[in-house]
Amino acid sequence: MDINEMLKGVKCACGKTHTCPIEYIYVESGAISHLTGLCKDYGNILLVADENTFGVAGEKTEKALSGKNIKRVIFTGKAVLIPNEDAINTVENNLDGIDLIIGIGSGVIQDLCKYVSFFNKIPYMVVATAPSMDGYASSGAAMILKGMKETVPAGLPCAIVADTDVLCNAPLEMIKAGFGDIIGKYSALNDWKLSTLVTREFFCDYIYNTTYEMIDETLKVADGILKRDKKSIEAVTKALMVVGIMMSFLGNSRPASGSEHHLSHFFEITGIVKNEPYFPHGIDVFYSTYVTAKIREELLSLNFDGGQFIPNRADYENDIKESYGIVADGCIALQDKVESYKKERGLIYYFYEKEIKAILSEMPSSEKINEIIKLVGLDINEFYSLYGQDKINTAIKYAKDLKDRYSVLWLNYDLRGDKI
């Protein structure tokens, strides 16, 4: 699959012409050297990295930018960098005279640069340092603003360079995270189909099928992940880039983010708010995909004729506040705005039970997901050990409240309610 050919756009059978404004994506050995040509029209460049990412790719980046006026923002690698207001201010305070931002890093660094670039109207490029997530080529910036996890619509990079010589030496946990993020698309795509039936959300076969193809391509190279095999790392990275392009084509993250991501966001947000440990994003997505597969299996055994559970408002607010702490009000306000708890879905479930169950059945079994988890040396028991069943059950019940997107978590809540 030629990524740069895909970037030119697709006139699709869904009736839309899908476009992506990224000009170039290079995933290859020595990719950083392309910066010389890509940056020929820019003179004043801000490099944004942390101590770790600058250590692995900063020297190569600066060599490719020889002769440019370079300013640096290097975050300490001693603490977890959070893409919040403080981090935004740190970058924005260094923009005077800058005509290009280059983010050297993976998830948080890129989200931060994407956000700052968009709101300050300064173009940016990406030097990827780990195949850890699919956000490099997506238009959403995953930020934590006022304590809430929020995907902010933002711009796209002019170019992405992903040097496999650098990526193969990324922390193994981050490589596993990227692999897990792709496997999580099983759940995200299933949620998309489910929402198309229940809420009449727009659906595109091309985007769905292309994303599913990336899962298949990733599974083919699973045995090379632990070996840091260059071809395997390249395949996973390309899959992550293509999924990002699919999100840009659609205009939102629906092909790549569903219930499994909502669960992951729950563990991250509550971890930050309550100072509790949590797994890296892609690892949490990987494990949460197993959880959503279990949920689907449980739903397949239910009859959908019991109506829709409607929570008591006071009990709901108490539960949310206990779960989310200081960010609870944001969750409540979001769900009040979109009126998720007021929408009648019970009759839809009753009349479309057969069709809904057919969609749920398309998701690989929890046993199959667990087999994939083991392929890269992970253990689902570590997930249950870190969070505990009570916290996981709370996530299953209320992770949906972080977003305004329908998923199997809503179906599960509507049908099972306080039995979760």
Structure explained in plain terms:
This protein is an alpha/beta fold. The protein has 2 domains: 3-170, Rossmann fold; 177-419, Up-down Bundle (Dehydroquinate synthase-like, alpha domain). It has 19 helices and 10 strands. It has helices at 3-6, 35-38, 51-64, 85-92, 107-120, 164-167, 172-183, 185-198, 205-220, 230-250, 259-274, 281-300, 313-324, 328-338, 346-351, 353-361, 366-375, 380-398, 408-416; strands at 10-11, 17-18, 24-28, 44-50, 69-75, 100-105, 124-128, 140-145, 148-153, 159-163. The strands form 3 sheets. The chain has a 6-stranded parallel β-sheet with strand order 3-10-7-6-4-5. Strand 8 (140-145) and strand 9 (148-153) form a beta hairpin. Helix 13 (313-324) crosses helix 14 (328-338). The protein is globular. The model has no long low-confidence stretch (mean pLDDT 95).
Proportion of strand residues: 5-15%
* Anisotropy-based shape: globular
Number of discrete domains: 2
- Say how many strands there are: 10
Mean pLDDT: 95
Spatial order of strands in the largest sheet: 3-10-7-6-4-5
Per DSSP, the total helix count is: 19
Distance between the termini: 43 Å
Q: Which H/E pattern describes the elements?
A: HEEEHEHEHEHEEEEHHHHHHHHHHHHHH
Question: What is Rg?
Answer: 21 Å
The parts where pLDDT drops under 50 for at least 5 residues are none
CATH superfamily name of the largest domain? Dehydroquinate synthase-like - alpha domain
Strand count, sense and barrel status of the largest sheet are: 6 strands, parallel
- At CATH level 3, the topology of the largest domain is Dehydroquinate synthase-like, alpha domain
Helical fraction: 40-55%
